[in-house]
């Protein structure tokens, strides 16, 4: 009988990660069947999507509360489906607030529940690990310092590396990126990445534009590129330019092309998040910034365990790049921090070398390692390859 695996992936990043995992599992089990909640990339690998992963996308606490009944209904429907069809295993990809509850119920039904991408228990809400221990049969971690936390709690765990480290080249082609974006003749280029969510762009766009104005006054030959993921965020940034009367600044907005923009840049101003890890894998000097509501920031700061919020600093366990957050993220301070990178090529070379070490550490063939950790729960081994049943 062909193995059947239920999966739930949340948002576009989970869809991509899960699609790579499905492909790796199918290399070992060509007749395997996958179903659950996913997106177009998973479906391209043969996944049967009962619900789209876009249904799970929420933006902040308020949106989550508004959609609680809808999301709870989808989750309970998924649970009933899994209990009825009893697949060989369940894999929850990221989306911990949705998946961990589901995994606990599924595991208690006698079905192995694997969670792919550790929640950030090392950053805040570390008490969640007790609930994780009750919910999951195995945790798959992207970062090398995470497994020790789960081993201490007695949770089976595997370090599988970060998929971006597999995709990004060890030596990015900066001249090709500049040529692609029409920046070959620009002496200085700064990439501005104010986030992917509308709330992030709304908070950071005015500050980033004011920072660009200061740098343009200091360096008349400077250029700025702003990759924006959606039409909505592009309109928000364009409106911020209009309000600031800054449409004459040398700022180019791009549809997507975030990786190209960062590769082409001399330095990057980036909102804290996955984009900061991308900048590190591209060996770019950067300044990490973030702003949110005053009370939300106070709550997050009180609950945080680490002195950093940026993944490059967390992974290197030191202050490799500056972080300017909340009230410290003023245009003057951000411009000064970027200027230090522009004026110190030796420091840029040193940080690129440090990021190269990090890149090699995270480059683990993630999908293949994750598949190898999952196969034993299907009574398979990585070496076992089934033959196709005759039609």
TrEMBL record:
<keyword id="KW-0444">Lipid biosynthesis</keyword>
<keyword id="KW-0328">Glycosyltransferase</keyword>
<dbReference type="GO" id="GO:0008915">
    <property type="term" value="F:lipid-A-disaccharide synthase activity"/>
</dbReference>
<protein>
    <recommendedName>
        <fullName>Lipid-A-disaccharide synthase</fullName>
        <ecNumber>2.4.1.182</ecNumber>
    </recommendedName>
</protein>
<comment type="similarity">
    <text>Belongs to the LpxB family.</text>
</comment>
<comment type="pathway">
    <text>Bacterial outer membrane biogenesis; LPS lipid A biosynthesis.</text>
</comment>
<keyword id="KW-0441">Lipid A biosynthesis</keyword>
<dbReference type="Pfam" id="PF02684">
    <property type="entry name" value="LpxB"/>
</dbReference>
<keyword id="KW-0808">Transferase</keyword>
<comment type="function">
    <text>Condensation of UDP-2,3-diacylglucosamine and 2,3-diacylglucosamine-1-phosphate to form lipid A disaccharide, a precursor of lipid A, a phosphorylated glycolipid that anchors the lipopolysaccharide to the outer membrane of the cell.</text>
</comment>
<dbReference type="InterPro" id="IPR003835">
    <property type="entry name" value="Glyco_trans_19"/>
</dbReference>
<keyword id="KW-0443">Lipid metabolism</keyword>
């Amino acid at each position: 009988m062909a193995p059947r695996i239920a999966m739930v992936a949340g948002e576009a990043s989970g869809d991509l990660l899960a699609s790579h995992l499905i492909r790796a599992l199918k290399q070992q089990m060509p007749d395997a069947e996958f179903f659950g909640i996913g997106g177009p990339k998973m479906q391209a690998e043969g996944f049967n999507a009962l619900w789209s992963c876009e249904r799970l996308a929420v933006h902040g606490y308020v949106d989550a509360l508004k959609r609680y009944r809808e999301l709870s209904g989808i989750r309970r429907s998924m649970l009933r489906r899994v209990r009825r069809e009893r697949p060989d295993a369940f894999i929850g990809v990221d989306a911990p607030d949705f998946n961990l509850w589901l995994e606990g119920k599924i595991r208690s039904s006698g079905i192995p529940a694997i969670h792919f991408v550790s929640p950030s228990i090392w950053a805040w809400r570390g008490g969640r690990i007790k609930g994780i221990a009750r919910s999951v049969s195995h945790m798959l971690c992207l970062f090398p310092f995470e497994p020790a936390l789960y081993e201490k709690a007695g949770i089976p765990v595997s370090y599988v590396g970060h998929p971006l480290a597999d995709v990004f080249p060890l030596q990015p082609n900066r001249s090709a990126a500049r040529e692609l974006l029409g920046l070959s003749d620009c002496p200085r280029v700064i990439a501005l990445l104010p986030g992917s969510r509308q709330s992030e762009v709304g908070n950071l766009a005015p500050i980033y534009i004011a920072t660009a104005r200061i740098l343009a006054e200091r360096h008349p030959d400077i250029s700025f590129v702003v990759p924006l993921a959606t039409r909505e965020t592009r309109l928000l940034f364009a409106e911020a330019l209009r309000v600031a009367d800054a449409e004459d600044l040398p700022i180019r907005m791009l549809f997507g092309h975030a990786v190209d923009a960062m590769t082409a840049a001399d330095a990057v101003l980036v909102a804290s998040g996955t984009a900061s890890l991308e900048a590190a894998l591209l060996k770019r000097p950067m300044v990490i910034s973030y702003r949110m509501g005053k009370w939300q920031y106070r709550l997050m700061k009180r609950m945080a365990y680490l002195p950093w919020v940026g993944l490059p600093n967390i992974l290197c366990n030191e202050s490799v790049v500056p972080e300017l957050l909340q009230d410290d993220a003023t245009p003057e301070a951000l411009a000064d921090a970027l200027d230090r990178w522009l004026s110190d090529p030796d420091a840029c070379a040193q940080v690129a070398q440090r990021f190269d070490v990090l890149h090699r550490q995270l480059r683990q063939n993630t999908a293949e390692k994750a598949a190898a950790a999952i196969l034993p729960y299907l009574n398979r081994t990585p070496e076992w390859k089934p033959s196709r049943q005759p039609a």
